Amino acid sequence: LFSTPELAAGVLVALGSIIAVQLLTPADPIGSSARLLKQFRNQEKSLTSAQNVSKSIDEYNRLHSSDKPAERNLEYKSLVNSYYDLATLFYEWGWGKSFHFANRYPDESFDESIRRHEYYLASKLGLCM
C-alpha cells in the first residue's frame, strides 16, 4: 500500500495524532470531517449543472485534445461553455451558491459567515440603505 517505510511511518503518526486528539481533547476532528463530507454531499445534490458533468467533461476533453485548430475554432463556444460549466460545478460543490470566501467567527455557521460577508460587500458597493 505504501511505497516507502518512511511514508508508512508518517501515516501511522498522523493517524495516531488524530486518534489522540479525538480521545484526549474536546476537539472532534473525526466528527468535523464527517460533517464537512456530509455538507459536500448535500451541496452536490443541489448543483445546477450536475446532470451534465460527464457530457461536459467528454466534450471539453474531445475539443481540447483535438489536433485540428479549425475544429477548435469552429467549436470555440462549445469548448468555452464546457470549461465554464465544469468550473461552475467545482465552485458550487465547494462553496455552494457563493463564489467567495468568508472568515468565520467562533460559533458562527458557514451560512451565517457568508451572509455577513455578503452584507459587508453590499455595504462597500453602496448597495445598502
Molecular structure report:
With 129 residues, the chain is mostly helical. Helix content is 70%, strand content 0%. The chain contains six helices and no strands. It has helices spanning 5-24, 29-45, 53-64, 69-74, 76-95, 110-124. Helix 2 (29-45) packs across helix 5 and helix 3 crosses helix 5 (76-95). The longest helix is centred in the N-terminal third of the chain and has 20 residues, at 5-24. The chain is flat, with a radius of gyration of 22 Å. The N and C termini lie far apart (60 Å). The mean pLDDT is 79.
Biggest pleated sheet: none
Residues in helices, as a percent range: 55-70%
Q: How far do the termini sit from each other?
A: 60 Å
| Number of strand segments | 0
Regarding quaternary structure, what we see is: single chain
Radius of gyration: 22 Å
Low-confidence residue ranges? none
Strand content: under 5%
Order of helices and strands: HHHHHH
Classification by helices and strands: mainly alpha
Mean pLDDT: 79
- Tally of helical runs: 6
Shape category? flat
What's this model, at a glance?
The chain is 70% helix and 0% strand. The chain has 129 residues and is mainly alpha-helical.
List keywords for this structure.
mainly alpha; flat; 129 residues
Ordered list of secondary-structure elements with their pairings:
Elements: H1 5-24, H2 29-45, H3 53-64, H4 69-74, H5 76-95, H6 110-124
Helix pairs in contact: 2-5, 3-5
